[in-house]
Amino acid sequence: MSADYTLDEFITRFMLQQPAPARPPRAVRQAAVLLPVVCRPAPTLLLTRRADTLRKHAGQVAFPGGSADPDDRSLIFTALREAHEEVGIPPEAVQVLGQLGPVESSTGFQVTPVVGLVSPDIVLQPNADEVAEVFEMPLQEALRLSRYTPLDIERRGIRHRIYLSWYQQQFVWGMTAGIIRELSQHVARPEDGYSMNSSPLAS
User: Residue 59 and residue 50: Cα distance in Å, rounded?
Assistant: First the structure.
């Protein structure tokens, strides 16, 4: 992502590009996460660090989100509901731009990333039972493709590629890093020097 990449250009390129075709779903359960872009003069990407007491993915950096309820009208509704429950972002305060292609998690969910804009004036109210910390990462830095280091692992006899990255004291890896990397490729410009066609994400 080039130094002069503005929020307006990010929005324009996101809206112009079509998401990559989804892989045939193997997961039965559906989930969604919200990728909140905070509209500061230098925009940021809001992330959480999950509570250390959670049964799954404890202490990991993540986007607010979770599994779909039977009553959810859509996966966008799921992402907004979960973001409200986890960090206190009102659903009506999110300007949804669209979705990225779904990815499969290691826990058997098909997860749909939803990209939305939020105001920097929103007062966050993290749910202490689920969220240990909320932090913002400069969008410029988050979408710098070179910050994500690939690592090939084997899980249940199947080889997966995951991505690892640090931001300050935060370790960003797995599905979260893969989603950010996918977003970076989704809005890439030809002069950024890499293809819009991404490799499959691993969780």
Answer: 5
- Is the C-alpha dihedral spanning 97, 202, 23, 71 positive or negative? negative
The domain spans of the chain are: 7-19+27-140
For β-strands 131-138 and 44-50, DSSP reports them as antiparallel
Query: In the block, which residue shows the tokens 């004036």?
Result: 121
Q: What's the predicted TM-score (pTM) here? A: 0.84
In single-letter form, the type of residue at position 61 comes to: V
Q: Per-residue confidence at 1, pLDDT binned at 50, 70, 90?
A: very low
Helix (H) or strand (E) holding 62, with range, is: strand 61-62
How many CB atoms are closer than 10 A to CB 119?
Answer: 12
Q: How many residues does the chain have?
A: 203
Q: Would you say 139 and 120 are in contact if contact means Cβ atoms under 8 Å apart?
A: no
Any idea which fold 7-19+27-140 has?
Nucleoside Triphosphate Pyrophosphohydrolase (3.90.79)
Rounded to 5 degrees, φ, ψ at 40 are -85, 165
Three-state DSSP class for residue 11: helix
